[in-house]
Specification:
CATH superfamily of the largest domain: YVTN repeat-like/Quinoprotein amine dehydrogenase
Distance between the termini: 36 Å
Helix content: under 10%
Number of helices: 4
Number of strands: 33
Strand content: 35-45%
Oligomer: single chain
Strand order of the largest sheet: 6-7-8-9
CATH architecture of the largest domain: 7 Propeller
Largest sheet: 4 strands, antiparallel
Length: 419
C-alpha cells in the first residue's frame, strides 16, 4: 500500500452533516475498508479493523465534520501501517522459471526420432545436464540454462551420454569424439590411446565411452571395442569377437550401465557385453533366446535393476530380461504385453523408480511402467506429451526424469513438464 493510498483512506473517515446528538454510537465500530494491497480486484482486497472509537467530538470543516478523537487502538494501527508502507522494501524480483529448453523437436525421415533430449545427468553440485540429439548440451543451475555446442568446444553436437568423474569433471560421449566440461569451459578430448594392446580392467570410478566413429570403429581403432577412462587417460579395449564378426559395424556402443559391485554393461547393436573385473561375458541374440522369426537383436539400451536383473531394450524386438540363466521376453513375463501397442517393440531407454518398478521408454508410444505383474502406459493424458522417450534418469533425490521432446518429472501419479 502506497503512502498516497493510505492518506486517501484516512481522509475518508468523515462524518457528514455534523449532528453529534444524532450520530449512531456504532458508526465506527467495525471495518473501514477495504484497504487495497495490490491490484484492484476482489481477491486482493484486505479489510482492516481499526477498533471502536471513543465518543466523537466533531470539528466543523466546511460541510463535513472530521473526527478529532479516535481510540488508542486505531491510532496505533494507523501508525504501524503507515510505517510499514513507508519503510518496507519492495520484494526481490522472482526469477522466471525456464519454460523450454532451447532445443527443437523435429521428426526425421520415416518418422524416426530426430531431435530433443537423449541424455540426463544431475551432477554432485545439483546442476542438471541435458544432452540433445544434434544441438549440443545445456546445463541448468536452478536459475538459468547455459548451453554448449561445437562453437563452444564440443567435439560434436550430438550428446549420447553424460557422466561425471571423481574430480567433478563432466564428460560427454558425443556422436563423434569425447568432450568434457570443467571450470566453466568445454574441451574436446583428442589424447586417446587407440592401440588395442591393453588388458581389460575395472575400477568403480572409471568411465566408459564408445569408439570414435558414429557407426562402429574406424581408422583409429583396429577392431570393435570401447574406451575406458581411468581418471588420467583413455585406453581402448577390444571386444572378444571372431574376426568375421569383428568386421561388422553392429558392435558399435549404444548404451552403458553400471551394475552391482561396479560391474559394467556395454550395449552394442548386436550384443551386450558384461565385465565384472575378471570375466567378460557376451549376450547375443542366441543368449537372449530370440528366434529367427523374431528378428535379430538391435539393442539400444541396457539396464541392471536393484535386484540384479538385466533388462535389454531392442528396436524391433522389445524388452528382454536376463536373470541368471533365465531369459524371457517381456511378453512372456506379463500377459498385458501381448495386448500392448507396437511401440513396446521399439525400446530406447530403461530405468527404475524408487518403488522398484521398471520404466520403459519407447519411440512412438511414450513410456511404460512394469510393476512385476502388470504394464501401464503413460502418455499425453498423464502429462507426458512426448511420444519419444530417449532418456530415463533417477536423480539424487530419487525423482524419475524422462527426456524426449521436452523434459518431464514423475510426481507419483502423472508427469509434469519441467523444461
Amino acid at each position: 500500500m502506497s503512502r498516497r493510498m493510505f492518506i486517501a483512506a484516512a481522509r475518508s473517515i468523515r462524518l457528514r452533516h455534523a449532528m453529534p446528538s444524532t450520530l449512531p454510537p456504532s458508526i465506527f465500530n467495525d471495518v473501514i475498508g477495504p484497504v487495497m494491497r495490490g491490484p484492484s480486484n476482489s481477491h486482493s482486497a484486505a479489510s482492516v479493523r481499526f477498533g471502536r472509537i471513543a465518543r466523537p467530538r466533531p470539528i466543523p470543516i466546511g460541510r463535513s465534520t472530521l473526527v478529532k478523537r479516535v481510540s488508542h487502538g486505531c491510532l496505533v494501527a494507523l501508525f504501524a501501517l503507515l510505517c510499514r508502507c513507508a519503510a518496507a522494501p519492495s520484494a526481490a524480483p522472482t526469477l522466471p522459471r525456464p519454460e523450454r529448453l532451447p532445443f527443437t523437436y523435429e521428426a526425421g525421415q520415416n518418422g524416426m526420432y530426430n531431435g530433443g533430449v537423449r541424455a540426463i545427468l544431475q551432477d554432485r553440485s545439483g546442476n542438471y545436464w541435458f544432452g540433445s540429439h544434434f544441438e549440443g548440451v545445456c546445463r541448468f543451475d536452478g536459475e538459468r540454462f547455459q548451453c554448449f555446442t561445437t562453437a563452444d568446444g564440443l567435439s560434436d553436437n550430438q550428446v549420447r551420454s553424460i557422466q561425471e568423474d571423481a574430480r567433478g569433471t563432466i564428460w560427454f560421449d558425443n556422436g563423434v569424439g569425447i568432450s568434457s566440461y570443467s571450470g566453466g569451459a568445454v574441451v574436446a578430448s583428442t589424447a586417446r590411446r587407440s592401440d588395442a594392446t591393453h588388458a581389460w580392467t575395472l575400477d568403480p570410478s572409471d568411465l566408459w565411452f564408445k569408439s570414435d566413429g558414429v557407426h562402429g570403429f574406424n581408422q583409429l581403432e583396429p577392431a570393435p571395442g570401447v574406451y575406458r577412462f581411468d581418471g588420467e587417460g583413455f585406453t581402448y579395449l577390444t571386444f572378444p569377437l571372431p574376426l568375421e564378426r569383428a568386421a561388422d559395424d553392429g558392435y558399435s556402443l549404444t548404451g552403458i550401465c553400471r551394475g552391482k559391485g561396479g560391474r559394467v554393461w556395454l550395449a552394442t547393436y548386436e550384443a551386450v557385453f558384461g565385465f565384472d573385473g575378471r570375466t567378460l561375458t557376451m549376450i547375443d541374440g542366441d543368449r537372449m533366446g530370440l528366434r529367427k522369426e523374431e528378428g535379430a537383436p538391435h539393442v539400444r539400451c541396457v539396464f541392471e535393476d536393484s535386484s540384479g536383473r538385466l533388462w535389454i531394450g531392442n528396436n524391433g524386438v522389445g524388452v528382454v530380461m536376463v536373470d541368471g540363466a533365465r531369459t524371457a521376453l517381456l511378453s512372456e513375463l506379463c500377459a498385458d504385453a501381448a495386448d500392448a501397442d507396437q511401440s513396446l517393440l521399439r525400446v530406447f531407454s530403461i530405468g527404475e523408480d524408487r518403488e522398484g518398478c521398471i520404466w520403459i521408454g519407447t519411440v512412438g508410444g511414450g513410456a511404460w511402467r512394469y510393476d512385476g505383474r502388470t504394464l501401464r502406459q503413460f502418455g499425453e493424458r498423464d502429462g507426458l506429451t512426448t511420444k519419444d522417450v530417449m532418456a530415463i534418469y533417477r536423480d539424487r533425490a530419487g525423482d524419475l526424469w524422462l527426456g524426449g521432446k521436452g523434459v518431464f518429472r514423475f510426481n507419483g501419479t502423472s508427469f509434469d513438464r519441467m523444461y
